[in-house]
Structures are given as C-alpha cells and as structure tokens.
Amino acid sequence: MDLSTFTTIHTAISIIAIIAGIPVIYGLFGATVNSFWTTLFLVTAVLTSATGFGFPFNGVLPSHVVGAIALVILALVIVARYVFHGAGPWRWIYAAGMVFSLYFLVFVAIAQAFMKVPALRALAPTQSELPFALSQGLTLVIFVALSIAASKTFRPSSADAM
Predict the structure, then answer these.
(1) Which stretches are transmembrane (predicted)?
(2) Which residues contact 153 (CB under 8 A, 6 or more apart)?
(3) Domain layout of the chain by residue ranges
(4) What pLDDT, on a 0 to 100 scale, did the predictor assign at position 148?
(5) Whole-number Å distance between alpha carbons of 104 and 65
(6) Which of 63, 38, 37 lies closest to 51, judged by CA?
(7) For the residues of 25-61, what is the DSSP string, one character each?
(8) Which of 5, 88, 104, 125 satisfies CB 3.0 to 4.6 Å to 70 for a cystine?
(9) Which of 107, 105, 136 is nearest to 24 (CA)?
(10) CA–CA gap between residue 37 and residue 153 (Å, rounded)
C-alpha cells in the first residue's frame, strides 16, 4: 500500500475514534455504557495507535512513545471492561483510561493541525512556540479534569452493565 493511501486510512480511523469517543465520555457522566460507541471507540483507538507505527521512521520518535503509552492504557481499559467488568478499582481505571485514551487522540490531532494547517503552522512552526504549548496545555487540563470527574461519577447500575 502506498504511503498516501496508508495515511488516508490512518487519518480516517483517527477521526472515527475521536468522534466515537465523545459519546463514550459523555456516557461516563450518565453512568451508562453504550456498547456500540464503546466498541467502535476501542477498536478504532487501538487501530489508530497501532497503525501509527506503520509510517517510515528512523529511530524512536515522540509519536512512538505516545502510541505505546496509548496502547498500554487501552489494554488496561479493555481488561477493566471485558475481564473485570468494572468491579472495584477497575471502575475508575476504566473511566480514567477511556478519557485519557481520547486525550491521546486529541493530543496528536492538535499536533497534526499545527503541522498541516497553514495558519496554525505560522503561529508555531516548530511546535515549541507559546500557541502550541497553550493549546496542548489547556487540552491536558481539560482532560485531567474530565478524567477525575469521570472516575468519581461513573457508577454503572451493575458490573454487568459494562
């Protein structure tokens, strides 16, 4: 498969994962788990992180570190949901893990936007400038707050509800 096609597929999967993640995170605050959105999110999030390793590279890049961390968190989320059904501490591990799984996708989307969108690239051509740092910092603060809130409020009606 040529690189252009691979990039298009990877990007499409990433966008689907981000979109699917929104109702999943929303559901954490209503103590509901929608199997369709959750499964779609988990499958596409894993595929996004895994396919990220398929791009040509020399050495370990920051994107590889983010992808590896994302895959570890997704593995914990999958175990929390499908093995332990959110029992005990697995409930907050699931909730926080889902939020941070979406965060990593958004984190990469912001980085890509600053690389590809001309107006954003002009503001932060090396991604070390203040606009990039502020956008990533604000995003992190929002997702940490969401993670804490979701971990505290997510209480499905029963472990079987997961």
Answers:
(1) 6-29, 36-55, 61-80, 92-114, 134-154
(2) 28, 29, 31
(3) 3-161
(4) 96
(5) 11
(6) 63
(7) HHHHHTT---HHHHHHHHHHHHHHHHHGGGS--SS--
(8) 104
(9) 105
(10) 19
Give the residue among 142, 143, 37, 50 at the shortest CA–CA distance from 96: 143
Is the separation of the CB atoms in 115 and 127 below 8 Å? yes
In the predicted model, is pLDDT for residue 95 greater than 80? yes
Distance between CA atoms of residues 132 and 134, nearest Å: 5
Assessment of whether the complete model's pTM goes beyond 0.85: yes
**C-beta of residue 71 within 8 angstroms of C-beta of residue 100:** no
d(CA 52, CA 66): 10
Question: How far apart (Å, rounded) are the C-alpha atoms in residues 90 and 154?
Answer: 11
Tokens of 135: 């956008």
